[in-house]
Amino acid sequence: MAGGRITYKIAVIPGDGTGPEVIAEGLKVLKAVSHLYNFTYAIEEFPFGGEHYLKAGKTLTDEDIEKLKSFSAIYLGAIGHPGVKPGILETGILLKIRFSLDQYVNLRPVKLYNPQFCPLKNKMAEDIDFVVIRENSEGLYKGMGEFRNKGTPDEIAIQISYNTRKGVERCIRYAFEYTKKRNKKKKLTLCGKTNVLTYAWDLWERTFYEVAKEYPDITTDYAHVDATTMWFVKNPEWFDVIVTDNMFGDIITDLGAIIQGGMGIAAGGNINPTGVSMFEPIGGSAPKYTGKGVINPLAAICALSMMLEHLGEKEAAASVENAVISVVTKKLKSLAAGKMGYTTAEVGDLVVASLT
Ligand code: IPM
Ligand code: MN
Fold this sequence. Notes:
- This protein is an alpha/beta fold.
- It contains eleven helices and twelve strands.
- β1 (7-15), α1 (19-37) and β2 form a beta-alpha-beta unit.
- α1 packs across α9 (298-311), α1 packs parallel to α11 (344-354) and α7 runs parallel beside α8.
- The longest helix is centred in the first third of the chain and has 19 residues, at 19-37.
- Bound molecules: 3-isopropylmalic acid and manganese (II) ion.
- Manganese (II) ion binds at residues 250, 254.
């Protein structure tokens, strides 16, 4: 590539458990691909995670958020520690970054690279190739609600799904634009629950069909969330792009991850189209595998590919993805931790060797 040299500032949060091991492999691939495609970058590592919380008593401060705002992108390993009560790190770190940096889209591609690793019978690679666009800033994740009569037999716990017209519309617009640019089946499916959740999904449905008028060449479809899970298993080939709310998106993308081969390969991006976005493998910190060199780093490497694409390094992004495809189709025995036939670092090396 000709032209000047650009420096990307990447904030790296290796996080907990196996996070640091997979991020190390991602950074190995980043270094190699930066030489091949002639771009430069600077990394700053941040200690956020369970260990840091136990030592410093802090998850992530407002000053930390301000600092993160100065980066080109954030590369995250995993957050989750067996010694910390569930909820503290998730809300204090992961959700705090998503919300404070207004990363309002969670982009989760579901792509099968090797049919051998698909738990579904008779599905080819081309049958499983869709993208879930999960709203990432509102819904049930907003944390709104209350207890009434807490601790009494008459206790009531209320958890509110909070949906704003602006919040819903920006996500839906992103989804239409994405479907158009993706240029495959040009089909966008709204995944909701209009038959029961008649406030939230009325707003989503109205907004969806209003925005759809601006995209006459995109086929629109609607599926209830329960039916969507059935079709992921029965007819995944029906889908191209799916747009849904935060909670449904969380649930259906775990199913999506399994049909594409598991947490060893599933990656996602938390996108603020005009701000700082964050890329992560979508599996957790897998504490039982920590330090054993058996975890699959490909999900983190796929997250790296997404980050490069987002930064505008399209050729480098494609090179990383193609190297992953080559390793997944020609080398690995399995995508599961401990069963790959290679160590974590060896898989990273295989990807580097397959870069073109
Ligand atoms: C995910 C995770 C998070 C979520 C948790 C860890 C808070 O499951 O990224 O899907 O629910 O969004
Ligand atoms: Mn999840």
